[in-house]
From TrEMBL:
Any GO MF annotation of the entry: NAD+ kinase activity
Gene Ontology BP terms: NAD+ metabolic process
UniProt keyword terms in alphabetical order: Kinase, Transferase
Name this protein carries in UniProt: ATP-NAD kinase
Kinase keyword on record: yes
Source domain of life: Bacteria
Statement: the UniProt record of this protein carries the keyword Transferase: yes
Organism of derivation: Allonocardiopsis opalescens
Amino acid sequence: MTSLAPRVVVVHRATERDRLLARHGSYAQAAFFLRERGRDPADIDRSHQAVERALAAISAAIPADWRRGRIERADLDRFLFAPGDIVVVAGQDGLVANVAKYLDGQPVIGVDPEPGRNPGVLVRHRAEALAPLLRAAAAERAPVQRRTMVRVRTDDGLELRALNEVFIGHPTHQTARYRLESADGEAERQASSGVLVSTGTGATGWCGSVWRQSRSTVRLPEPDEAALAWFVREAWASPSTGTDRTEGRLAGGAALRLVAESDGLVVFGDGIEADRLTLAWGQAAQVSVDGRRLELVA
């Protein structure tokens, strides 16, 4: 019985030029829109061409006898990744985070189509250098960094996971009311603009901003450390709500538990509000280190 050839799934995002054409119907109208707002259409064209060149180079690097797939970010929630897939993400660092929640152990190779424009924390490779990485990943010889993810599980069994962070709060970022139960078993009723729980990967983003602004002394986790940091945003002190428990760390099997005390609180990860869980009054959500990790080819 012949085993199947490896499958490479290329994940990308529609370029800004593609999105403008879809919105305005023609290149001339899109260019007029950009000029009216002080932007040069040539910049959009250069970025689009760089992405197209990278995608072409990625396609050329995949061995002819291997299977292949290609998917846009907007369709990720409808795509089924197979256990043996090799995932190539071509785009910004955030696209790797968008993909991570749909994977379970598949190796991910991040390709930067516009070197110098992206930080390159998660998209570390050039398209032209992809071929040997693909063969190493297929042979399970590629060096891999196992990055920690965060998981939220509601009391009715629904789950959401993320690579950077999860946010729990009101969908309009107005005051959220809930009871927070920290890992040490202590509880406090709070009113705030939401709770942020971050991995070490997310510690350089949204969580890092909150950490700096609050002058926190909590040690932020490393990307591969099985730990999380959590922060309450703008907690409000009142006769019925407190501000004593607004930050901390979760390590090992420790968990943070929130019980909603208002309807319509939401949980979303990595900034994707459309993909979210909703908490009704009295419903609980537990946040902890996820058992899955992102297998990022280093």
